[in-house]
Design a protein that fits this description.
Blueprint: E1 2-3, E2 12-16, H1 26-33, E3 38-44, H2 56-75, E4 81-84, H3 87-98, E5 102-106, H4 111-126, E6 130-134, H5 156-166, E7 185-186, H6 207-210, H7 215-228, H8 233-236, H9 249-253, H10 259-269, H11 279-299, H12 321-328, H13 335-347, H14 352-365, H15 370-380, H16 386-397, H17 412-419, H18 424-429, H19 438-441, H20 449-455, H21 470-485
Parallel strand pairs: 2-3, 2-5, 3-4, 5-6
Antiparallel strand pairs: 1-7
Bound molecules: flavin-adenine dinucleotide.
Flavin-adenine dinucleotide binds near residues 245, 248, 253 and 385.
């Protein structure tokens, strides 16, 4: 450690986690006011995330986000110290080296993070170091919500009604500090590259043209959305052929922008923003879904591995790994599903409508357990988020809180025709089908052979035939569902389509 003077009062350590921003960061704000300077640190400890260490796409994002954060901190007279975990040990060492008196952080709510943070708190307390935690990733703490009967919410509608009642309590965001008080000396740091976050994957080579990780990128995405997306959000959010949504999800997940900033920006640019029917209202409702997902994860942490409806524990899932691979690779023969899975692989992101369609196809048409889909999304999404991913997979599978009933099965052709009516989305991601007219693009197996020949499509050769037939797969899924609902003994063989 290079020390200029002997500190009389210790500095404050600011532990960055999923709050990689300077503006509206309560932990940074409080640490800056503590006196004695601020030492920002990022501790790399993937082994402390249990089964949910960041996947490849998330690591790509995290690397670039940390690089941006480090550069921004330097512009404000500060630095970002990189250390390796375990977190309790890394922070204890840093406290000893810097004689820090307090550690500040924004709370996380995933089950493993909660356990780890309790351990870090206890370790630091033993050394007489104060811990100050803030709510920096959510609008409200997950435990602030209670239904009328005093239990956690399991249904979104009453949660949303409650939410709107409290919405006026949402404070204005904090400004970004112009200068961050430096400590008397800086401790040693690893270089970001030494954390080896960046996957060596060719498909990510062009991702910096698609995405701008970091706080400035988050604000750019927000401004673009406010200018051209918000007004039409209600109508376009389900249209994967249009840029209908904000694409703020990775920025929100990594905390490059806070939900409080979004909430306030949208409300100030759209008077009457909570009026039902407006694009702004629909968007703010999605932010409330995000809060609901964290509320559910906090009270039902087992949801990350287990269905919340116990009857689904005996569901006769298929173990067909060939089908799983066909789904992952976008080779199911259903164009809307394949376009989605290829977009996911090539860009790290998917619109919500397509997430629902591909997830439904996996759990209902292929009857592959939702956990395998959630694990694939975890590896491939740049916005992989334990609360949102878990809630939504359980929602689609019909086994979570407020879930879509299992018997409601998306028809992949009708979904395609409704939400990608001209087939532009499919053409963008499946070049093999680009020559097909809109009438056939979502069901090429029904197209006349002259149409296929004119488009250069050879089913079974350059594009697969459907791996399952819709009506049969649907009937088999319903039989399986009836069986678990009636709690009769089941065997997977009985449900082969
Ligand atoms: C099977 C499945 C898995 C999903 N996994 C994730 C995930 O890992 N991470 C993730 O952030 N979202 C997940 N979602 C939710 C949703 O699809 C994405 O948040 C959304 O598509 C992100 O795009 P956007 O930022 O343009 O969203 P917008 O429509 O612009 O919405 C703004 C923000 O609201 C929140 N939001 C929107 N929809 C939802 C929702 N259904 N549930 C909770 N929050 C929502 C997100 O933070 C999003 O960034 C999943 C959905 C499904 C069906």
């Amino acid at each position: 450690m290079q020390t200029r003077t002997t500190p009389t009062e210790g500095p404050a350590i600011l532990w960055f986690r999923l709050d990689l921003r300077l503006a509206d960061n309560p932990a940074l704000h409080e640490a800056s006011q503590a006196g004695g300077g601020v030492i920002p640190v990022y501790v790399h400890a993937p082994e402390e995330e249990g089964n949910w260490a960041p996947g490849a796409a998330s690591r790509w994002w995290l690397h670039h986000s940390l690089a941006r954060l480090e550069a921004t901190l330097r512009e404000r007279g500060s630095r970002l110290i990189f250390r390796r975990g375990p977190a309790a040990q890394a922070l204890t060492e840093l406290v000893r080296e810097t004689r820090a008196k307090a550690v500040f952080w924004s709370r996380r709510y995933e089950p493993t993070a909660l356990r780890r943070d309790a351990e870090v708190r206890a370790t630091l307390a033993k050394q007489g170091v104060a811990v100050r935690e803030s709510c920096g990733s959510l609008l409200f703490e997950p435990w602030q919500w209670r239904s009328a009967v005093g239990r956690p919410f399991r249904v979104f509608r009453p949660f949303w009604i409650n939410f709107q009642r409290l919405a006026d309590r949402i404070d204005s965001p904090l400004p970004a500090p112009r200068r961050i008080p430096a400590p008397d000396g800086w401790p040693d740091s690893l270089r970001l590259e030494e954390l080896s976050l960046l996957p060596n994957e060719e498909r990510m080579g062009h991702w910096l043209q698609l995405w701008q990780p970091g706080e400035a990128g988050a604000h750019r995405a927000l401004n673009q959305f406010l200018e051209s997306g918000l007004r039409r959000y209600g109508a376009d959010r389900d249209r994967p052929d249009k840029p209908g949504t904000s694409k703020l999800s990775p920025h929100l997940h990594f905390g490059e922008i806070s939900p409080r900033q979004l909430w306030n920006e949208v409300r100030s640019t759209s008077p009457g923003a909570l009026r039902p029917g407006s694009g702004a209202a629909a968007f703010l409702r999605e932010l409330a879904w995000r809060e609901f997902a964290h509320h559910v994860l906090y009270y039902f942490p087992e949801a990350v591995e287990e269905p919340l409806k116990p009857e689904f524990r005996t569901f006769p899932w298929s173990e067909d790994d060939v089908r799983l691979q066909q789904w992952q690779q976008g080779q199911t023969g259903y164009p809307i599903v394949d376009a989605g899975m290829r977009e996911l692989w090539q860009t790290g992101w998917l619109a919500n409508r397509v997430r629902m369609v591909v997830a439904s196809f996996l759990v209902k048409h292929l009857r592959i357990r939702w956990q395998k889909g959630a694990a694939w999304f975890w590896q491939t999404l740049v916005d992989a988020d334990l609360a949102n991913n878990t809630l939504n997979w359980q929602w689609v599978a019909g086994c979570g809180v407020d879930a879509a009933p299992y018997f409601r099965i998306f028809h992949p052709v009708k979904q395609g025709e409704k939400f990608d009516p001209n087939g532009e989305y499919v053409r963008r991601w499946i070049p093999e089908l680009a020559g097909l007219p809109a009438d056939w693009i979502h069901r090429p197996w029904e197209a006349p052979s002259v149409v296929l020949a004119a488009a250069g499509v050879e089913l079974g050769t350059n594009y697969p035939r459907p791996v399952v037939e819709h009506a049969e797969a649907r009937a088999a899924a319903l039989r399986a569902f009836q069986a678990v609902r009636g709690s009769r003994p089941t065997s997977p063989e009985a449900w082969q389509p």
